[in-house]
């Protein structure tokens, strides 16, 4: 009896020490607070799903994070969330995926940046871990599905909006994001095709790496080099707001349209500053990603491509959309 008592007491003490050690560990800047202090528990009865994003420095990524965490809760998932610091830090993202592969999650939901991650993703497919891509598609045959915006269509819709408020022969500038990134190339191609189809002249395409500050400088240069610019398409909202800042500083009135639907852009539209954005739905992308990861784990059918939808946001519906985004972010 005494032997059994001391054995039980020892187990209790060991468990308490392990708990204290876990609480005292430091977290990496790339991991969420919920996941930083522990590895995935593969002994859990719950499905183990990791969601990894290419960046964490923009509201767009915060919306995707919120969608993933809500899905973890709604579907009772043993989930882990990780993200690179910025979407230009491709090696950081690769390192995260390399480290995560040793934990063997049952499924991976990934928002990649470029195809540079494909060699690492092969480790997941070799281990029969389903990989679902969100936001950015990759030319990789082993993916389960792509969930996100049809970026070419989004670019076309933006170009169509500009053609509706401009005239044939007007000069238009395009500010792209990270050159080589799949979603960037598709958006720019869609916008350019639609603009040229309606007789507008795309006189320059310049990169600003999806960054607002860089877009200010790029737009200043465009204004200097092309003083007859009548409209601007940017491949995301941050660059749209940066371009608008440069335009306002030059006391010009040039319509600007971006893609994303962040709260800053929606607020700007509702105030009559930014003209329009094509709204994406990163919250839904991540949520649907987790939902379909469960299906993949259970060997259920998952569609090869799932369109998360887009919407044109103008002054007429900007406030309504802003309230929705703020609700997702808990504001």
UniProtKB/TrEMBL annotation:
User: Sorted alphabetically, which CDD domains does this protein's record hold?
Assistant: PBP1_ABC_sugar_binding-like
SUPFAM superfamilies per the UniProt record, alphabetical? Periplasmic binding protein-like I
Q: Read off the InterPro entries from this record.
A: Peripla_BP_I, SBP_2_dom
Primary localisation category: other
Q: Which GO terms describe its molecular function?
A: carbohydrate binding
> Record's GO cellular component, any one?
cell envelope
Q: Which UniProt keywords apply?
A: Signal
Q: Does the keyword S-adenosyl-L-methionine apply?
A: no
What subcellular locations does the record give? Answer: Cell envelope
**What name does this protein carry?**
Monosaccharide ABC transporter substrate-binding protein (CUT2 family)
The organism's taxonomic lineage, starting at the top: Bacteria, Bacillati, Bacillota, Bacilli, Bacillales
